């Protein structure tokens, strides 16, 4: 099967199994096809994307209440489902991206499938199935701004997945404090696996950025407001996690200086990246190399 065919089946699939089933055999990338930027995913009715106001998620403090904990786990499953879809979306949107970038996305996609299944399985202990509660499309709403492989990794890998390094640790600690060791271990395991995803974004930021820009300048310049560096951290910022993901000390310090985003609300001010960030996006390097002939799932 072609990688693009598999990616399209995930994005357009109208069952959860269609989105979370790994490929049955090795995938090839001989015919990635023209760029395809799908506007929305296929979904089963119970997982249809709803307005954010109908799919609000309790804050981390809610982990002490089993009912709120279940809602948090349900939202976590939805975040992972969107990640699966968005990594498949990127494989379709950027067929000319470097072959190693595309292989890396496939590996991350397969791990995100596992994360979603784990959260869905954990929900059963609370008497819920994935899809019993409304779900939002927060990640999907950002796709119009993800116009290059570099912008994609800056938003997905270095912002949303970076923030999950903190959120997963926080939720693990709160679940453990509530006596739910099973959920605590689940959050901790996913935190550990997200380190690889952030490391992927860091390496590709270094490879694709304008060489005259620092890593921080390039990162800031390739985020589109309202997404900004502050979205890449949680309340309890883990320096050690960023070090294990390979981020530089200078970059970690800049992230640490950013305030935590505690709530989403309309803002009128222009975005700022401080200190010393370039406000004009640097030129996008051209994708390099022809697609590799064989891409094996999970390698």
Structural notes for this entry:
- Helix 1 (about 5-10) packs across helix 3 (about 65-95), helix 4 packs antiparallel against helix 6 (about 180-210) and helix 5 runs antiparallel to helix 6 (about 180-210).
- The protein contains 9 helices and 2 strands.
- It has 2 domains: about 1-145, no CATH class; about 150-175 and about 195-285, no CATH class.
- With about 300 residues, the protein is mainly α.
- The longest helix is centred in the middle third of the chain and has 29 residues, at about 150-175.
- A two-stranded antiparallel ribbon has the order 1-2.
- It is about 50% helix and about 0% strand.
- Residues about 265-299 have low confidence and may be disordered.
Short description, anyone?
The protein is mainly alpha-helical and 299 residues long.
Number of helices: 9
Structural domain count = 2
Largest sheet: 2 strands, antiparallel
Helix content: 40-55%
Strand count: 2
Shape: globular
Give start-end ranges of low-pLDDT stretches. 264-299
Strand order of the largest sheet: 1-2
Task: Give the distance, in angstroms, between the N- and C-terminal Cα atoms.
Answer: 16 Å
| Integer-rounded radius of gyration | 19 Å
Q: How are helices and strands ordered from N to C? A: HHEHHHHHHHE
Question: Would you tell me the overall average pLDDT?
Answer: 89
Percent in strands: under 5%
Class from secondary-structure proportions: mainly alpha
């Amino acid at each position: 099967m072609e990688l693009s065919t598999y990616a399209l089946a995930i994005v357009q699939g109208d069952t959860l199994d269609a989105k979370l089933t790994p490929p049955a055999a090795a995938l090839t990338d001989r015919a990635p096809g023209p760029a395809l930027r799908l506007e929305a995913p296929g979904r089963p009715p119970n997982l249809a994307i709803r307005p954010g106001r109908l799919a609000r998620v309790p804050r981390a403090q809610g982990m002490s209440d089993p009912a709120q904990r279940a809602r948090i786990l349900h939202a976590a499953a939805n975040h992972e489902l969107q990640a699966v879809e968005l990594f498949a979306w990127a494989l379709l949107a950027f067929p000319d991206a470097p072959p190693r970038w595309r292989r890396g996305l496939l590996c991350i996609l397969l791990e995100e499938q596992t994360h979603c299944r784990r959260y869905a399985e954990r929900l059963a202990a609370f008497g819920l199935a994935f899809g019993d509660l409304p779900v939002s499309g927060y990640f999907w709403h950002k796709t119009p701004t993800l116009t290059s492989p570099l912008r994609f990794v800056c938003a997905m890998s270095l912002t949303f997945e970076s923030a999950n390094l903190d959120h997963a640790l926080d939720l693990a600690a709160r679940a453990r404090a509530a006596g739910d060791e099973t959920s605590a271990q689940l959050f901790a395991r996913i935190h550990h696996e997200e380190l690889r995803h952030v490391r992927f974004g860091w390496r590709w930021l270094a490879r694709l950025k304008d060489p005259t820009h620092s890593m921080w300048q390039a990162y800031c310049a390739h985020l589109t407001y309202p997404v900004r560096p502050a979205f890449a951290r949680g309340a309890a910022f883990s320096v050690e996690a960023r070090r294990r993901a390979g981020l530089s000390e200078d970059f970690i310090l800049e992230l640490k200086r950013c305030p935590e985003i505690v709530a989403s609300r309309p803002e009128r001010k222009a975005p700022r990246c401080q200190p010393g960030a370039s406000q004009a996006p640097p030129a996008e390097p051209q994708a390099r190399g022809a697609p590799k002939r064989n891409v094996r799932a999970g390698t």
